[in-house]
Amino acid sequence: MQGLGNDFVVFDGVRQQIEVDAALVQRLADRRFGIGCDQILLVEPPRSPDTDFYYRIFNADGSEVEQCGNGARCFARFVRDQGLSDRTVIPVGTAAGAIRLYLEADGQVRVDMGAPVFTPSRLPFAADAETPDATYPLDIAGKIYQIGAVSMGNPHAVLLVDDVSTAPVATLGPLLEQHPRFSRRVNVGFMQIVTPAAIRLRVYERGAGETLACGTGACAAVVSGRQRGLLAERVQVTLPGGTLRIDWAGQGQSVWMTGPAVRVFDGEIEH
Ligand SMILES: N[C@@H](CCC[C@H](N)C(=O)O)C(=O)O
């Protein structure tokens, strides 16, 4: 499946027993020797009575993580297409808490991603104290960059750039992803503000490298832009793979993400 070109192998772990480990994920995610994907998603039975499913996410490098926005939209499309659910509103448990997926009449999927978290220790990010705009100076290879630090269930660092097309994603991305102040690594967003209602964004993802789109990255960028007083409540986020709509009313409120989710092919894996 794919959401704006951020691609996934999705497993039905409700009807079949599946053991996923890092070696299997790395093998399947390999674009030359495997199927190829940015993340592997696992649909599992619910772990609490207020949810219909449990959603697990593995990066291409084998690491299991807390949240994935584009994957959440694909998750909704998958459980409907596979006949695992006939609902249009689907509550789903994740390692980062419950989210709600809404299958819209026009084919788009809208997701209540929950409220962002700014407390540095909850990303985790090493900082003396939380700042009002959630930005922090960070020394990267001897140069100071001002980054926004936001958790959308998973950790994000957001940098402002003048032009995303020339942003140093391939060089600065990995240095920031592995920065020692982010003890569990971090997803790195490079955000260009076009107008208060439109941004361009590229994301160097933890455990996957630069992807064509990152849903939680889009949410984190809009939240960080709003915390800095630069963005409106509704923002069109243009990523290399397409456009997402992100809505965030402010502190304590859920971030809403709306966009497409596409099944590319079905298959069986022999083992
Ligand atoms: N592509 C995703 C995010 C996947 C997880 C991320 N790389 C992490 O390690 O937190 C999205 O659409 O949000």
TrEMBL record:
<comment type="subunit">
    <text>Homodimer.</text>
</comment>
<dbReference type="InterPro" id="IPR018510">
    <property type="entry name" value="DAP_epimerase_AS"/>
</dbReference>
<feature type="active site" description="Proton donor">
    <location>
        <position position="68"/>
    </location>
</feature>
<feature type="binding site">
    <location>
        <begin position="69"/>
        <end position="70"/>
    </location>
    <ligand>
        <name>substrate</name>
    </ligand>
</feature>
<keyword id="KW-0413">Isomerase</keyword>
<feature type="binding site">
    <location>
        <begin position="215"/>
        <end position="216"/>
    </location>
    <ligand>
        <name>substrate</name>
    </ligand>
</feature>
<feature type="site" description="Important for dimerization">
    <location>
        <position position="265"/>
    </location>
</feature>
<dbReference type="InterPro" id="IPR001653">
    <property type="entry name" value="DAP_epimerase_DapF"/>
</dbReference>
<feature type="binding site">
    <location>
        <position position="39"/>
    </location>
    <ligand>
        <name>substrate</name>
    </ligand>
</feature>
<keyword id="KW-0028">Amino-acid biosynthesis</keyword>
<feature type="binding site">
    <location>
        <begin position="205"/>
        <end position="206"/>
    </location>
    <ligand>
        <name>substrate</name>
    </ligand>
</feature>
<dbReference type="GO" id="GO:0005829">
    <property type="term" value="C:cytosol"/>
</dbReference>
<feature type="active site" description="Proton acceptor">
    <location>
        <position position="214"/>
    </location>
</feature>
<dbReference type="Pfam" id="PF01678">
    <property type="entry name" value="DAP_epimerase"/>
</dbReference>
<feature type="binding site">
    <location>
        <position position="187"/>
    </location>
    <ligand>
        <name>substrate</name>
    </ligand>
</feature>
<feature type="binding site">
    <location>
        <position position="154"/>
    </location>
    <ligand>
        <name>substrate</name>
    </ligand>
</feature>
<feature type="site" description="Could be important to modulate the pK values of the two catalytic cysteine residues">
    <location>
        <position position="205"/>
    </location>
</feature>
<comment type="function">
    <text>Catalyzes the stereoinversion of LL-2,6-diaminopimelate (L,L-DAP) to meso-diaminopimelate (meso-DAP), a precursor of L-lysine and an essential component of the bacterial peptidoglycan.</text>
</comment>
<keyword id="KW-0963">Cytoplasm</keyword>
<feature type="binding site">
    <location>
        <position position="59"/>
    </location>
    <ligand>
        <name>substrate</name>
    </ligand>
</feature>
<comment type="similarity">
    <text>Belongs to the diaminopimelate epimerase family.</text>
</comment>
<dbReference type="GO" id="GO:0008837">
    <property type="term" value="F:diaminopimelate epimerase activity"/>
</dbReference>
<feature type="binding site">
    <location>
        <position position="6"/>
    </location>
    <ligand>
        <name>substrate</name>
    </ligand>
</feature>
<dbReference type="GO" id="GO:0009089">
    <property type="term" value="P:lysine biosynthetic process via diaminopimelate"/>
</dbReference>
<feature type="site" description="Could be important to modulate the pK values of the two catalytic cysteine residues">
    <location>
        <position position="156"/>
    </location>
</feature>
<feature type="active site">
    <location>
        <position position="68"/>
    </location>
</feature>
<protein>
    <recommendedName>
        <fullName>Diaminopimelate epimerase</fullName>
        <ecNumber>5.1.1.7</ecNumber>
    </recommendedName>
</protein>
<keyword id="KW-0457">Lysine biosynthesis</keyword>
<comment type="pathway">
    <text>Amino-acid biosynthesis; L-lysine biosynthesis via DAP pathway; DL-2,6-diaminopimelate from LL-2,6-diaminopimelate: step 1/1.</text>
</comment>
